[in-house]
């Protein structure tokens, strides 16, 4: 029986790289998207039918930063079952070929934009399932906060559920609490980049005082929340999945990987 084929968007990201490695280890074919797949990835088109090959051929372009995606080819099964496709969230229709005919999509690319036209709906009927990792912040009580980042994440998830229901797509949304760990890629992005900046002392806060303001600002008082947020992991244990790592374990593994890669 043919193994299902999956698309992983944002293929060079932290979560995406782990997904790609795991899917390949289980024998799946993976289409990973990247804004710049790189010149050495042209062989990823081999084995495709002629029509799809012609369509994808022009999407593999020379890269000035091959190292950013080259690490994916060191994964087991990558040469046989990994295809990298050029796609950009800011370019309408650039993901069409990446998701056409796959059994499911792991959508990790960020930011997520909701276009006002119907282009995004073209390939919706061809998808069976989609997994979208968002942040835990979308399920916190933020009724008294003015955090537009959290608000945007909440709207993104609501739109994902609406879209999935409309087109009959099996959607799973994962809300990770904190994503830190060993780095697979040659250099960090997103959260790990911030962690590295803190470790190197490059992430600083400089207080700036303004002696004059043309506008009188009025801020509401907000009492701090001293209660820690807790999550019930009973379902995780019942499924036989491993327990979550502690923060010290996560950061120790992360720092070790930084040192192994010469970043610290």
From TrEMBL:
UniProtKB keywords: Oxidoreductase
Extent of the signal sequence: none
Domain NAD-dependent epimerase/dehydratase per the UniProt entry, residue ranges: 7-123
Any Pfam family matching the protein: Epimerase
A Gene Ontology molecular function term of the record: oxidoreductase activity, acting on the CH-OH group of donors, NAD or NADP as acceptor
InterPro entries: Epimerase_deHydtase (IPR001509), NAD(P)-bd_dom_sf (IPR036291), NAD(P)_dehydrat-like (IPR050425)
PANTHER family (UniProt xref): NAD DEPENDENT EPIMERASE/DEHYDRATASE (PTHR10366), TETRAKETIDE ALPHA-PYRONE REDUCTASE 2 (PTHR10366:SF503)
Protein name from the UniProt record: NAD-dependent epimerase/dehydratase domain-containing protein
Organism the protein comes from: Ensete ventricosum (Abyssinian banana)
Lineage: Eukaryota, Viridiplantae, Streptophyta, Embryophyta, Tracheophyta
């Amino acid at each position: 029986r043919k193994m299902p084929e999956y698309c992983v968007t944002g293929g060079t990201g932290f979560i995406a790289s782990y997904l790609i490695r795991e899917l390949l280890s289980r024998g799946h074919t993976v289409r990973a998207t990247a804004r710049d797949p790189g010149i050495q990835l042209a062989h990823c088109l081999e084995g495709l039918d002629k029509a799809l090959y012609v369509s994808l051929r022009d999407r593999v372009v020379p890269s000035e930063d091959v190292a950013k995606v080259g690490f994916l080819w060191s994964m087991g099964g990558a040469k046989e079952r990994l295809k990298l496709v050029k796609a950009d969230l800011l370019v309408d229709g650039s993901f069409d070929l990446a998701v056409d005919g796959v059994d499911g999509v792991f959508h990790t690319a960020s930011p997520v934009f909701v276009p006002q036209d119907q282009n995004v709906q073209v390939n919706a009927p061809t998808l069976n399932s989609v997994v979208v990792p968002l942040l835990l912040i979308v399920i916190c009580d933020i009724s008294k906060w003015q955090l537009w980042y959290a608000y945007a994440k909440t709207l993104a998830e609501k739109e994902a559920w609406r879209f999935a229901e409309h087109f009959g797509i099996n959607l799973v949304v994962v809300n990770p609490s904190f994503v830190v760990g060993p780095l697979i890629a040659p250099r960090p992005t997103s959260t790990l980049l911030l962690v590295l900046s803190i470790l190197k002392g490059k992430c600083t806060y400089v207080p700036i005082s303004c002696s004059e303001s043309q506008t009188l600002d009025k801020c509401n008082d907000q009492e701090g929340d001293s209660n820690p947020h807790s999550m019930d992991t009973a379902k995780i244990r019942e499924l036989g999945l491993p327990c979550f790592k502690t923060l010290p374990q996560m950061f120790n593994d992360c720092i070790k990987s930084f040192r192994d890669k010469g970043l610290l």
